């Protein structure tokens, strides 16, 4: 794991979700995952707006989609679910941490993926789940 003084990526960092949070609040691990019916040992974030949009769009609630700009408050590492399994070299610039993320801002507006793209992603994820391949190593 790397800390803020020796980061893997300079940021800025984003977290896409449907949770309604305020500036200064902390996103912490050990809460229900956006993607699975279990508590996550990590909090996940990204340095790309595209990956953050997926996080907001695919979160499992019916609340409004939000993207927060976040500051990691501790050590973090490349997300092995993506960098080791799907996208070697971390082109999605996705990370995870056992330390909180501080919300420093919320993006006021951003362009969603098309409904067609979102539906395709949902279908692909359902297929992976049915095949037992949609595993998050947490």
TrEMBL record:
Gene3D superfamilies: Rifampin ADP-ribosyltransferase domain
Transmembrane residue ranges: none
UniProt cross-references to Pfam families, sorted A to Z: Arr-ms (PF12120)
Domain of life the protein comes from: Bacteria
InterPro entries: Arr_sf (IPR038611), Rifampin_Arr (IPR021975)
Chain ranges of the Rifampin ADP-ribosyltransferase domain: 13-110
Protein's recorded name: Ribosomal subunit interface protein
């Amino acid at each position: 794991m790397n800390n803020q003084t020796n980061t893997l990526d300079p940021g800025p960092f984003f977290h896409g979700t449907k949770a309604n949070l305020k500036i200064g609040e902390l996103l912490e691990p050990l809460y229900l995952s956006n993607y699975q019916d279990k508590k996550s040992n990590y909090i996940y974030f990204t340095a790309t707006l595209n990956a953050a949009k997926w996080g907001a769009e695919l979160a499992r609630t019916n609340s409004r989609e939000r993207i927060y700009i976040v500051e990691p408050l501790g050590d973090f590492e490349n997300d092995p679910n993506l960098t080791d399994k799907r996208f070697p070299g971390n082109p999605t610039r996705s990370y995870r941490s056992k330390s909180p993320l501080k919300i420093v801002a919320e993006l006021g507006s951003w362009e969603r993926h098309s409904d067609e793209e979102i539906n395709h992603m949902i279908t692909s994820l359902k297929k992976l789940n049915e095949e037992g391949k949609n595993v998050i190593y947490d």
